[in-house]
Amino acid sequence: MGPLAPHISNLYGRRGWIVLGVCALILFVLFPLANLVMPKGSLFHISDFTVALAGKIMCYAIVAVAMDLIWGYTGILSLGHGLFFALGGYAMGMYLMRMIGREGQYQSDLPDFMVFLNWKAYPWYWSFTDQFWYAALLVVLVPGLLAFVFGFFAFRSRIKGVYFSIITQALTFAFMLLFFRNDTGFGGNNGFTDFKRILGHTIATSQTRIALFMITGATLIVTLLFARAIVTSKLGRVLTAIRDAESRVMFSGYNPVHYKLFIWTVSAVICGIAGALYVPQVGIINPSEMSPANSIEIAIWVAVGGRGSLVGAILGAAIVNGAKSVLTVAFPEYWLFFLGLLFILVTLFLPRGVIGAFDQLRDRLRQRKLAQPARGSTA
Questions:
Q1: What is the C-alpha to C-alpha distance for residues 18 and 24, in angstroms, rounded to an integer?
Q2: Looking at the chain, which terminus has fewer C-beta neighbours within 10 angstroms, N or C?
Q3: DSSP per residue, 168-213
C-alpha cells in the first residue's frame, strides 16, 4: 500500500459510527447546554466567543474535506480553493448586508459603502439578494459554475501537476484584485461587515450563534458522509486510479476529464457552502479571504491531517487553526514561521500526516499483540 493510499479510518465500521454519534452528542446537546443553560461563572460554561471559534474551525474543516476529495483522492493540487470559499461568503454576505435595512450609518436602503461611493441602485448581479433562497442559490451556483467552466477548459487541455496549481492560484489572485476595487460592488478593501440579522433573527444573540454552530456541525457531518459515499463507491475507485495512473485509466476506456470535472465542481460547491456558513459567524467577508496564502493554508491542513483520509483532513484543519488561534494571540509575528516549519516537518517525517502516524502506531501495536502468543508457544 503506497503512502497516499486511502486509510481505513475508524469512520468505517461500528466503532466509527459510535464515534460519530458521540461527536453529534457533543455538537447538538452538550455545546448548546453549556452555552445557553450554564451560568457564565460556571466552570462548564462555554462562551459565545468559543462557540463562534468552533463554528469557524468547522467551516474550515468542511473546506478541508472538499480539498481532500480533489487532492487526496484525485491527485489534483488546487491552490485556488480560497476563491470558491470567498464567493460563497460574498453571496451570503450581500444578503446579510441587505438585512441591515436603514440601520446603517447613512440610514439608506443601500449599504453604507454604496452610499459612500454614490451608487444609486444595486447592480444587476445583486438583484433579489434580499431573498434568502436566492442568496442560497448563488452560494451554490456561482462557485459551481466558475469551477465547471474553468475545469472544463483546463482538464480538456490536459493541464495538470504544478501547472494546474499555478493557474488556480493565478485565478484566485486575479479575483482578489477585482474584488479590491471599489467600483465593482463588492465593498472594496473593507468588504461586507456590520451584519445584524439573518432570517429575521438578531445575529449577536447567543441563541442565533448556537443555531449557526449547530447548522455548521450538521453540514460538516453531512459533508463527511457524502464524501465517504463518493470515495467508497466505484466513482471513488476511478478517482483514485486517476490519481495513481491516469494514462492506464484512459487505456481502460474511461475518460478522466469527466471524472475530474465532476469532483472538481463538487469540491468547489462544498467550499462555497462552507463560506456561506463562515460569514455570519465571523461577521465579515473581504477580499483577503482570496489571498494566495489562504489557499495554500488549505492544502497545508490536508497535508498535516493526512491526504486520502477524510477524517485526517478534518483533524488537520482543527490542529492548524486551533494552533493559529493560540499563536496569533501569543506570538503573532511568529505564526507564519511556525506554519512553514509545521509543513516542512510533516512533509519530511509524516508523509501520511497525523492520521497516517496513528494508523502506523496502531498497526505496530497489533503486530506486537499477534507476536506475543507465538513467543509463548515456543518457550
A1: 10
A2: C
A3: HHHHHHHHHHHHH-GGGSS-TTT-EE---EETTEETTSHHHHHHHH
Q: Residue 35 gets which letter from DSSP? A: I
Note the pLDDT tens digit of each residue in 352-375.
Answer: 888 888 878 887 888 888 877 655
- In the three-class reduction of DSSP (H, G, I as helix; E, B as strand; rest coil), residue 283 is classed as coil
Q: How many CB atoms lie within 10 A of CB 55?
A: 24
pLDDT digits (tens, 9 = 90+) for 71-81: 999 999 999 99
- As a whole number of angstroms, the distance between CA 162 and CA 226 comes to 28
Query: What are the phi and psi torsion angles at 192 (to 5°)?
Result: -110, 135
Q: How does 203-219 read in b/e, with b if 16+ C-beta sit within 10 Å?
A: beeeebbbebbbebbeb
- 100 and 195 in contact (C-beta within 8 Å)? yes
**3-state class (DSSP) for residue 94:** helix
For Cα atoms 232, 237, 241, give the angle at the middle one, nearest 5 degrees: 150
Interstrand relation of 284-285 and 201-202 (parallel, antiparallel or unpaired): unpaired
Q: How many CB atoms lie within 10 A of CB 155?
A: 20
Residues sharing a CB contact under 8 Å with residue 349, sequence separation 6 or more, in sequence order: none
Task: Write down how long the chain is.
Answer: 379
Residue 239 · residue 263 · CB < 8 Å: yes
Quickly count: other Cβ atoms within 10 Å of residue 321's Cβ. 20
As a whole number of angstroms, the distance between CA 119 and CA 157 comes to: 41
**Consecutive 10-residue averages of pLDDT for the chain (379 residues):** 41 75 93 93 91 96 97 94 96 94 85 86 90 96 97 94 94 95 89 92 94 97 95 94 92 93 97 97 94 92 92 94 88 84 84 84 82 57
DSSP string computed for 313-340: HHHHHHHHHHHHHHHHHH-GGGHHHHHH
C-beta neighbour count of 89 within 10 angstroms: 29
Partners of residue 201 on adjacent β-strands: 198
Instruction: Provide the grid cell at 189.
Output: 478593501
